[in-house]
Amino acid sequence: MTELMDQGLDVEVMATDRSTSIQKIMREEFPNVQHQFDIWHTAKGFRKKMQSKGKKKANEIIHAWTRSVVNHMWFACATSMGDVNALKCRWKSITHHVCNVHEWTDENGEQHRCDHAPLTTQEQKKRMWMKKDSLAFQNLSSLVLDKRLLKDMDKMALFKHTGPLEVFHSALLKYLPKRQAFSFQGMRERCHLAILEHNENIIKRKQDTTKTGQPRFNQVYCKRSKQWVLKKVFTPHTTEFIDILIKKVMDRRRNPNIQFTMPTSSLALPQPSLPPNIAPVPKPPKEAAISSFQSRF
Ligand SMILES: [Zn+2]
User: What distance in angstroms lies between residue 56's CA and the mean position of ligand 1's atoms?
Assistant: First the structure.
C-alpha cells in the first residue's frame, strides 16, 4: 500500500476481510483511505452462522431461509449507494419479510415497506413464513440484528467485493501456470501480460444480447445450493492487446531512426536455477527405500 501510494497512486478505498489487525493498520496508518469490508467474506460468514443454527430441529425453517437472507445481504449492500443508514434499514427489513409482513412502522413512527412488488396469494403460499413468537424467529433475529454485524455494515455501504480480483487471479494462471518456474523477469513480464488482458476485458466485456436485443442468460446447476441459477452471458473474451503489442514491436523494428545496439541473443531471459525438488532432506538410495518398504509386510 505504501509503495503504491509512493508511486503516486491515489488510493480512495481499500476492501479487505474483517481481520482486526488490518482494521487497526488502516485506522492508524491510512486514515485518509476509506476502509471497506469485502461483502463476499461477510456474506459467507453469515451463511455459515445461519447453516449452523438451521441444523437444530426447531430451527429447520432457518435452513429454508438461508439462501434468501444471504441474497438479501448482497442486495441491501448493492442498493445502498454508500448510505450506511439506508443499508442497515434495508437489511433489518428482512426480520419483517420472513414473517410475511411487508409494510410496518418502526420505533420512531416511520412507515416502511419491502422493495419487492406485492406478493400474489400463490407466491405467499409457496413460502414457509416464520411466526414472530417462535424460537426460530428469535434465533434468526439475533443473527440479523447482531451488534458486531451491524457495526461491520458501517464498512459495507460502498458495495466492495473482491470478485474481479478472483477473475484476475484465474486469468493470471494462463500466463503464470503454477507448475512451471520462471525467472523474476519472466514472472514480471507475464504478470504484465495478464494485467493487459484483464484490463482490456474488464472495460470492454458487457452482458451479451440476443438478436432481439434481450440480455442473454445461461442456466447453470449450482452444486452448493442444489439449485438451478441464472448466469449472465458476456460478450466473448478478447486479446486485442496482443495485436497492438505486435504492431508496436514491428513498427519499432522497421523504424530506421532506431538503432539496435544489443544483439537479439542477449534479450533471452535467463533460466531460473532451481533445486530438482522441494524436499529439505536428501533422497535415500532407492534400494534401501525398496527394502524398507518390503520389510513392512
Ligand atoms: Zn417483503
Answer: 25
Using CA atoms, how far apart are residues 155 and 164, in angstroms rounded to an integer?
19
Domain residues for the domain of 103 are 38-155
Q: Give me ligand 1 centre to Cα 154, in Å.
A: 24
In the three-class reduction of DSSP (H, G, I as helix; E, B as strand; rest coil), residue 209 is classed as strand
What is the grid cell recorded at 201?
476485458
Identity of the residue numbered 285: P
Could you give the CA distance from residue 277 to residue 279 in angstroms, rounded to a whole number? 6
- Give residues whose Cβ lies within 5 Å of ion ligand 1: 97, 102, 114
| pLDDT tens figures, 34-83 | 999 999 999 999 999 999 998 888 888 999 999 999 999 999 999 999 99
Residue 123 shares a structural domain with residue 231? no
Q: Count of domains in the chain? A: 2
**Residue 100 gets which letter from DSSP?**
T
pLDDT digits (tens, 9 = 90+) for 89-148: 999 999 999 999 999 998 888 899 998 889 898 888 888 999 999 999 999 999 999 999
Name the phi and psi angles at 153, rounded to 5: -65, -15
Given 127, 155, 183, which residue is the final one in a domain? 155
> What is the C-alpha separation between 168 and 14, in angstroms, rounded?
17
DSSP letter for 215, please. Answer: B
Where does a domain end: 110, 133, 155? 155
Nearest in space to 17 (alpha carbons), one of 31, 33, 30, 36: 36
Ligand 1 centroid–CA 46 distance in Å is: 20
